[in-house]
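User: I've been trying to design a sequence by hand for this structure and keep getting stuck. Would you show me what you'd pick, starting by listing the structure so we're on the same page?

Assistant: Good idea, let's start from the same input. This is the structure you sent:
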């Protein structure tokens, strides 16, 4: 069996200049495929809310929902590091709340690490989670969807020098607090490059250009599950069409009485069938 990816594995990959692959997954079958494909980190993202549960944003996702999905992913994975995303209002209220819920992710769901959104302001929570309960923390800065309402929606971050500097300061604060990795979302490539060069810990980007130590995509965007996807993601397959074709063909065959055919049908031995009919008086 391949060796489990740990914080140390990822650190060594950064030092060797080896890129890290990361993808989201929310259930047993897709996590099993991602692990088999050699993906290094599987993120059970709070994007589960929009991608799988049909919410309009990630805000309604609860700890119990996250734990349910994390458990399914953990059961599927042998090699990849599994990171559980902390949902909205599960860590922002107090350091104690952040520590308790990070602990739940590990104790109840069995994840290897947690991710939370926020920069400097979250540093005390990151430090407490790492130092008090020994749970590895991945920071998430740049575009932070849980705060989309206050930050003006899903917009490119770090376009001017001031906001770029603030994102860099956030990354440094997270590293200082003990984060083992910093993920940033929809941030200019220039900022991503500076942060990746400045930080000792690995960086992971989504919509941040090629300079990060690793890349993450939302599985359903990558697989082409929906008609639309963010413009920074790439579709490596077009599953929507494949699934629609399969379901339409199935429905058509049921209605045309082509399915199930003889090869999908199982019979009683003829003598037992005869006996049954006699028993029933037919
Ligand atoms: O929840 C999620 O899928 C994420 C990724 C966008 C990184 O946080």
């Amino acid at each position: 069996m391949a060796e489990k990816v740990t914080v140390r594995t990822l650190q060594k990959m950064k030092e060797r200049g080896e890129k890290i692959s990361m993808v989201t997954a929310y259930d047993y079958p897709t996590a099993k495929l991602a692990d088999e494909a050699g993906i290094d980190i599987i993120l059970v993202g709070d994007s589960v809310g929009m991608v799988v549960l049909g919410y309009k944003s990630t805000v309604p996702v609860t700890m119990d929902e996250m734990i349910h999905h994390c458990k399914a992913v953990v059961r599927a994975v042998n090699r990849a590091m599994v990171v559980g995303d902390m949902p909205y209002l599960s860590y922002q209220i107090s350091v104690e709340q952040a520590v308790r819920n990070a602990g739940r992710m590990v104790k109840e769901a069995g994840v290897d690490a947690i991710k939370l959104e926020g920069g400097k302001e979250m540093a005390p929570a990151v430090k407490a989670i790492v130092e008090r309960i020994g749970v590895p923390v991945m920071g998430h800065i740049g575009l932070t969807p849980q705060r989309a309402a206050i930050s003006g929606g899903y917009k490119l971050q770090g376009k001017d020098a001031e906001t770029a500097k603030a994102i860099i300061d956030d990354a440094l604060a997270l590293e200082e607090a003990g984060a083992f990795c910093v993920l940033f979302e929809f941030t200019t490539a220039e900022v991503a490059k500076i942060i990746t060069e400045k930080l000792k810990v690995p960086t992971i980007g989504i919509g941040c250009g090629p300079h990060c130590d690793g890349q993450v995509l939302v599985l359903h965007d990558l697989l082409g599950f929906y008609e639309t996807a963010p413009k920074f993601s790439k579709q490596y397959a077009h599953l929507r069409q494949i699934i629609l074709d399969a379901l339409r063909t199935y429905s058509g065959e049921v209605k045309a009485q082509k399915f199930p055919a003889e090869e999908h049908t199982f019979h009683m031995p003829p003598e037992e069938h005869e006996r049954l009919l006699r028993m029933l008086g037919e």
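That's my pick for every position. To get oriented when you compare it with your attempt: Residues 7-237 form a domain with the TIM Barrel fold (CATH 3.20.20.60). The radius of gyration is 23 Å.
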